[in-house]
Records
---
Amino acid sequence: MFKYLSLALTALLLTASPSMATAEDGAPIVIKFSHVSAESTPKGQGALLFKKLVEERLAGKVKVEVYANSALFGDGEELAALADGRVQMLAPSLSKFDKYTKRLQVFDLPFLFTDQAAVDRFLKREKSRELLRSMNSSNIYGLGFWTNGMKQLSANKALRTPADAKGLAFRIQASSVLEAQFAALGATTVKLPFAETYKALESGTVQGTENPWSNFVSQKFEKVQPYVTITNHGVLSYMVVTNSKFWTSIPFQIRTELESILDEVTLSVNQTAEANNQRDYEALVAGGKAKIITLTPAEQAAWREAMLPVWKQFEGEIGADVLHAARAVNRK
Ligand code: LMR
């Protein structure tokens, strides 16, 4: 009787905690790292470096499987998969956590950071460390921030002034701030998973979008977006996340080693992201398929002015403390 009760209890525990790490039986802990970007991008490179270092330093104890290009889960599915243990690590863009915390919306505010170096400074501040813990109540545990780059606008027509965007439909990530940013231009938006963007641009469901160079080039968007305007109006950064229950179930020594590897990878991703984007920008120019529009300072200021009212709309939800800390990094 006792044996059956204990078997039933074990079965119950296993179903209740599908994401528990199991190292006791000698089998390695498997970390499935799923993401939506190409392997050539800063995130793609980071995931592969994490796998390489883990397999060198924790051989036989931890096995990392990387699934790029939405091959395992796409946007809209991956966070649910993290919650029920079908995947153990993700690095979604900060725009995709809207449902879990409003504080991360700060990263979507247009023209908030003057350049990538300012974003890098903010990610090292105490306030950013605090943001890593902002989704604890949903069991989402932030392990670090990875950057990609500044976003540029693209469309099927030349965008030189904010009025040029009026009436167009833009593909956006699932973010209310980005929705408001395009509404401020008189444009409409469609929230679409990254993997569906190319098709939507090709079919004309949407006519424009925004990306850093690495994503634009790796998705071959120049085939369906003949014009890119260098606006640097926003940033694309990620949070590497795991499931808190899964993470704390990993034996302490292994977990500490994983965290130290991740810190090393984070440093590498963030140090090389800008060069990675510059390489892709140069490849795009050399390819000659897209017309790249460089704005004058006055034209750039007009985009800023058109999008700036968005800040007022969201500062309450984001919190004055976060906004203040982010603005402070523009002054070195
Ligand atoms: C996007 O959906 O545009 C980005 O978040 C894709 C990415 O780099 O993760």
---
Amino acid sequence: MEGVDKEKVQKVIYEMSKGSKYFENEQRKEALTKQKIEHLRAQCATLTDNDLSHFQKVAERKMLELEASRDLSKIWLHTDMDAFYAAVETLEDPSLKGKPLAVGSMSMITTASYEARKFGVRAAMPGFIGCKLCPGLVFVRPNFERYTHYSELTRKVFQSYDPSFIATSLDEAYLNITSVCIERSITGEEVATELRAAIHQETGLTCSVGVAPNRMIAKVCSDINKPNGQFILPNDREAVLTFVYTLPIRKIGGIGKVTEQKLRQVLGISTCQEMLQKAAFLCALFSECSAGGTETPKQRQRKSIGCERTFIATDDSSLLFEKLANLAENLMDDLQKEGLKGKTLTLKLKTADFEVRTRAVTTRGYINSKEDILIYATKLLKAEMPLSLRLMGLRMSQLHDEKDDSSTSTQKTIDIFFRSSNSNLNVNGTNVQSITNISGQDNGPISVTTEDGYLVPDSGTGASTDQQDFFVHDESIFIPEQRNLVNYNNEAVLSNPVIGDGLGGAKIDDVTHTAKVMNSEKLDDVGQFISHEATASSGKPGQQLWIDGYICSICGFELPPGFEEERQEHSDFHFAESLQQEETVDSKRPICSERLAEKQCSTTPSPKKKLAEKQCSTTTPSPKKKLKSSKGGKHIPIDAFFAKCKKNL
Ligand code: DCP
Ligand code: MG
């Protein structure tokens, strides 16, 4: 956004999106952020000098531990393709070269060419706003097959430098180049230059590279000389410290818009150095894990399994129960296929007004049969009725692998459960409620948690009980500032009602199973998602879940677990697509500005070209295209970087 008139961009965004559902959703998110900020401020105000000196010691101890574990022996390289989707489209259609280009639709842009970025057009921006900012903006529909193809070509190159490279999305990867540097007696800088040239040679595309002693910093470095550039941070403690101190906190992976706002508005923190200065407050207010780990998806284990269904909003209860039964069956299939049982069942509901509610129940024993799932799910749903819904989902967490303990007998536990009597719940806290009387039947020792979108969450740590059987699991307790942590581990179990969701609204009635990965999807001519499952997935367009917490089930886009806000932005893209479809068919609710923008815009491809593109997408694109050499890329050396930073501070 350098050199962009940010004020003008903000004004246009506001004027153009006012009144749309997207805008309403953004407002809800903002309101929730404000509430969280207020809550944090209140928490902050309760901290005494004693608390702070305690947390200061905790922070210092932690810093000492980290210092002791500082490892400067490795050389990590992070690579990130430049304007990836847009660059691929330009490679496929050279007439787009030099034009301001947006990949996406009137609803949402996935990325923009650097020419378009000069006008303030960027990823996760609705297309009609992009048109207003940049009247000549050219649109191309995303073609995920193409991006996957080019991504695979880049991965072949990565392989030759680090066979265990970590790809975190289609266009990004981390390579440990320590061995290559030693074996070939070359520097990290030389590897970076060579690798960029090899990528260009193989794909015709440019990328930017960062080299540093660890992955997190390497990622920051790859962004410094973008596009088509590289930045090398030497394996030297002083250089690393100076570099990190100057960084704005937003540069740290996992610190997105919301966290940045919180840190700035509550604690006045803008740079990493200020983070260190306020370490006691950070320790007091934030959980350790939300400070940003570098754990990779590979190391994670499945925490939950589930499915959800989007449909045309209905208040017909028999229809809703029918859908619930289908969901229970699908959940049973997925659990049994993986040999899993679970203890906590979460029902997710999205009302016709896009309010998201989650209701969770924890059973005494592990369950995975349709009958058992349906008993609990029905009770949870009944308690919410009457209501009009557009989405329902069921998710099982607290999983147990049957292979680990064959003695667990679910049915027996359920029998005991229903035979038990007079087991009343005794719970405090507004986010926990009993369903004992829902059907006039005694439900025995279970815990139930509820959570609504748009509401200020209760900050109390939840529940107490005098009942030994009763169990309120940690992830059900809504402590706003530990939200990152909760979502990190239990992505879809208790997705944040507003921020963590943002899906649905599509017209297609089917089920997506999280256990099944849809490898690629693409938009057809009318903007419907057509699935091209590589596996026998019954997943269909219109819903989105993050498979294993980081792979988009709609397009296969990967974003690592810590990148919660980035994932949210990506979800918003699909969400806006579905809203767009809805608003297009609903003539009573047109978005005037969008229509206006559509008229103003030159949108490619033409019908003829679309056909050609369709044909093209089924054939393998030629990897080697003539493009400007990557050798002439940007190289601001480290000294110049520090000089520039000092000026900006
Ligand atoms: N993407 C998306 N939704 C987003 C952001 C990105 O679908 N909210 C897609 C389109 C991008 C690709 O992922 O081309 C890679 O994302 P990057 O953030 O790396 O952005 P670009 O590669 O487009 O640009 P840059 O040169 O800044 O890396
Ligand atoms: Mg990129």
